[in-house]
Description:
It is built from two helices and twelve strands; from the N terminus they run ααββββββββββββ.
Amino acid sequence: MRRKKLEKKYIVLIILILVTLFLALIFTIIKSDHDLNPIEQSIKDSVSFVGKIIYKPINFAKEKIAENKEKDDLYEKYQEQQEKLANVDNLETKQRDLESQLKEMKELLNLNQTLVEYEYLNATVINRNVGYWYNTLTIDKGKTSGVEEDMVVMVADGLIGKVTKVANFNSTVKLLTNNDTSTSLSVKINIGDKYVFGILKGYDQDSKRLIVEGVSGNDKIPLGSEVVTTGLSDNSPSGLLIGTVSKIKTDNFDLARILEVESKVNFDDINYVTVLKKKDEK
């Protein structure tokens, strides 16, 4: 039994030696520069042919790997460019937002120089409640800053509403765009050298215009006439711009005139406001 195992080992060893010698011979033939005889040439051609068959899929795989790597590199560069473009877009958006806020604040500062008999409390909008019947916003000024109910609130383009609730550090402002008739406001319309009076009663959601009813007198009111506050309220100075007349119609009985007033204020984009109060109120 042991002898058979030794014989197998010798056979394997002899085969390995023969294979090694054969490969060495082939390698010598392939690399040789001397003229080959027909047998040597046949061996070399056969080995070259087999080598091409073996290495063709290997070379193909290498080319695919290189091609995929090139695509990956190009995709990474594309992603980097997209990220850079996105960062630029974000910066431009932030810049536009900051420029808009700066413009709004500058306009408020200019407004603060016009009504010398009033004090101005500049405030920031911290919350917005939008609804068909209930349209308010919350500002970051309250009792500790001297804010009181019924004080009017403005932006650079005109009146936006009045304070209806006051807490220590914030206040609720009901906008002119609400449909609560309890916040009606006395107004006057400039028609040259005189005024006609009316009551601001609400807001038309369809036309996006304020509604003035109960207009006094029969004087002709040109379109584009300015509508301003009367100053009849203790907390509302006279002459605060509300908007301009854009349409005139009559009620169902053709007796009273109803005005549609267009405000310059963008009620959908209010960030900073000014609360007005008389200087003797301290």
